[in-house]
Design brief:
The chain has strands spanning 23-26, 31-35, 41-46, 49-50, 66-70, 86-89, 97-102, 106-112, 117-125, 132-140, 148-152. The protein is mainly beta and 153 residues long. A 4-stranded antiparallel sheet has the order 1-2-3-4, with no helix packed on it.
Length: 153
């Protein structure tokens, strides 16, 4: 039998957050989400019903999280061949990010790729109806235009 998490934690997250148990967000609509320390979703549900098919793990990327597809710069006319876009995880163990803050219905995770991209990802749970929203802000610090695409996988 699947059980909904029994407690809501309201303390704010610190970048040095290292405890293995998930952080639980809960809305008045009955929606709840268990978040792992690296920002990935462990489980999601409404009341006693579990919505997510797979349970996310601490040591691997969950199947349902956000990725940033970074498209290569347009090729010069003298160059031949197509370049493959790279994928940058916005959440999960490979994301190079950290917790910034949390509340009972929201959590924010910030990260960077070590070069010219920075991002903020916020998970919002609605209090009126059991829905959730991902808010993603991208900041490109480079001098050239960079084609980007956010994907939920």
């Amino acid at each position: 039998m699947n059980r909904a998490p029994s407690s809501v934690e309201t303390t704010s997250m610190h970048p040095a957050f290292t405890r293995p148990e998930p952080f639980v967000l809960r809305s008045a609509s009955g929606l709840w989400v268990e978040l792992l320390p690296h920002g990935g979703v462990r489980r999601m549900g409404c009341g006693y019903d579990v919505i997510s098919l797979f349970v996310g793990q601490v040591c691997e990327s969950p199947l349902h999280h956000l990725w940033l597809r970074v498209h290569p710069q347009p090729l010069a006319q003298s160059e031949a061949g197509a370049q493959t876009p790279t994928l940058q995880p916005l959440l999960g163990p490979g994301s190079q990010g950290r917790w910034v803050w949390s509340s009972p219905t929201r959590a924010r995770f910030e990260g960077h790729n070590g070069a010219d991209l920075q991002w903020q990802v916020e998970l919002h749970l609605s209090d009126e109806v059991p829905t959730w929203f991902w808010h993603v802000q991208l900041h490109h610090c480079g001098s050239q235009t960079q084609p980007l695409q956010v994907e939920l996988l």
